[in-house]
Amino acid sequence: MTGKELVIKALKEKNVRYVxxxxxxxxxxxxxxxxxxxxxxxxxxxxxxxxxxxxxxVSRASLTNDEPQIGVCMTTSGPGAMNLVTAVAxxxxxxxxxxxxxxQVATGVIATDAFQESDVVGVMMPIxxxxxxxxxVEEVESTIHEAFYIAETGRRGPVVIDIPKDVQQKEAxxxxxxxxxxFKPNLPGFFYHPSPERDLIHRAIQMIxxxxxxxxxxGHGVIDSKAGALLxxxxxxxxxxxxxxxxxxxAMPVDHPLSLGMMGMHGTxxxxxxxxxxxxxxxxxxxxxxxxxxxxxxxxxxADVIHVEIDxxxxxxxxxxxxxxNADAGRTLHVLLNDPxxxxxxxxxxxxxxxxFRQEMKADLxxxxxxxxxxxxxxxxxxxxxxxxxxxxxxxxxxxxVGQHQxxxxxxxxxxxxxxxxxxxxxGTMGCSLPxxxxxxxxxxxxxVWSISGDGGFQMNIQELGTIMxxxxxxxxxxxxxxxxxxVRQWQTLFFDGRYAGTPMLSPDFGQIASAxxxxxxxxxxxxxxxxxxxxAIDQEGPIVLEFVCDPTEIVLPMIPSxxxxxxxxxxxxxxxxxxxxxxxxxx
Amino acid sequence: MxxxxxxxxxxxxxxxxxxxxxxxSMLIRKKMYNVDTLTVCSAKAPGTSxxxxxxxxxxxxxxxxxxxxxxxxIEVISAKELDRELSYWREVAILKIDAERSTLDNLAPxxxxxxxxxxxxxxxxxxxxxxxxxxxxxxEEVGLEHIVEVARTGVTAIEQ
Lengths: 588, 160
Description:
- The complex is a heterodimer.
- By secondary structure, chain A is of the alpha/beta class.
- Chain A contains 25 helices and 17 strands.
- Chain A is globular, with a radius of gyration of 25 Å.
- Chain B is 27% helix and 44% strand.
- In chain B, strands 5, 6, 7, 8 and 9 form a five-stranded antiparallel sheet that branches. A four-stranded antiparallel sheet of chain B has the order 2-3-1-4, with helices on one face.
């Protein structure tokens, strides 16, 4: 068999259903073989970055399906591979398993700066879990199987396989054989510890039982280990409130009485206050990044930390732990739940304090949600998301882009179903939403999928409307258009004296764009039309673009300023902002 | 400032695969570790390399982080810090020295060195073996003004 045949064979054996990509000189042999075999559906993106985000969508969404899939993308060498970089780095930051197969120039010309040659392995190495370049046909099959094994084992992540063109075309040795059943990757340095150690569990339970003011953190690892229900059960059994990281959202219903919602920079005031007051943090599958902790020196000063995390390098990295449990979040929850020593305590004082925290911003938010418009009469994003949440009963798949609308979606969509929130968290890649939503839709054809972007992010991968058109994909597209890069504008309002450098943005007529792709379109600029617009999208069979005319002055609150501590949390809009600006100038 | 920091050594065994050295050097750059020396050789087990890394760091937690980050690499089989009291750290230096032969001869009782070549009457190629401090002391005693060139291997180490 030839290298290209072995690639297709291996992908078929891994039950790959979709390959996303873009062809070109150095990958043509594999594309040709794919066409001959018709082993899976090829979906052409309009830009390679789109292909990698589509692959992410498949991996993220199908994780909790009966048959999880690893998203695969395939591109040519040089620019084709380089265009994958952002989305691969994004997958690495968010621990998303994808396999990227790139064509490389033939081994004979590698390192001669041949046409469309790039050092793919060199570029990808720091942003992947592993990279490969098989130099012989006989390595191709084992490399692909090993790549899948690494991508999906332990803390997940992207793997890149760079295959020289001649390796794709050459015949394997006559006596080449490969048996998947007996294949075991030779990886003496690759191991992980899924099960928690008994004595650590014992210590953790003692701390939990004796804590007066505990809080549970639910991170991405809970969703990755399919343990949302277990986490909820644990919280209920031990009677402990739960705060979510951005990626932990949707692990359990976000309106559960024990839920505090999201924590961190744009987390809820109750989650952040609870963290500051708590005496014990029990963190599952998360990494205490700076958006979660704010200023480390002031972070949760009174709390002991039990950190359950599959990746040992995340333990004690940012926050020192009292009990470090290097294990799978799901297995640890299972062991904790089944330990007879775990007790429930009423913690009445703690919960009444939490009720007070919950009231702190409630009236303000309810007022804004009801008004639905800002001072200039334009729509508030939070009202739109809130309405979407109501109409869909929190049951739909939400794929936001990056920025204000992402934080607002995280805060105001009332997630009810496990693993229905797919977002670029670590890397914060604008433009991810549209292609990622395509992958999610393919993985969940029977469910409703919403891509929500700002006017900025939408235009970063706007070309993938072509993919939606071609594949006839029912993705509901929301553009929250405020004419600015809203999140940066918010920082400029708060910290840069209102100088809007590089944030105002002139957009094209999105109606004409949608129409050019044959996609229905509606523009909504009045509160009274929000519901009708969203209903039209729900009733519409097939894709639709809804553009909402949004208030550029809306700011996401609360906010912990970058580098600040939880005590610096801004919970009220400094009004009037313009006057404050003048005052500051006067003082100088 | 770095010279005031404690010198630590990490011993690592790795699966021989392309790119592993590249990964480690990238990690050092990315995480801005204060690495002094790095030596790599084949280990006893076939297909395995051993690497000794020395770095300047007073904070134990940071050294633990380095070890965990190294162990995270799929190729790294094990990484651990060497206890200074329970391990031997040695390096080799080859020096080109401009000094009277008698100067060197006077140092012979005190230092473990070998004259590899005598280029001119007052120019010698000298090999010194020992702990880093031993080599530093030797160089100081010869006098930096007499040292034309120095090549040091970096530290390699073994546990008791």
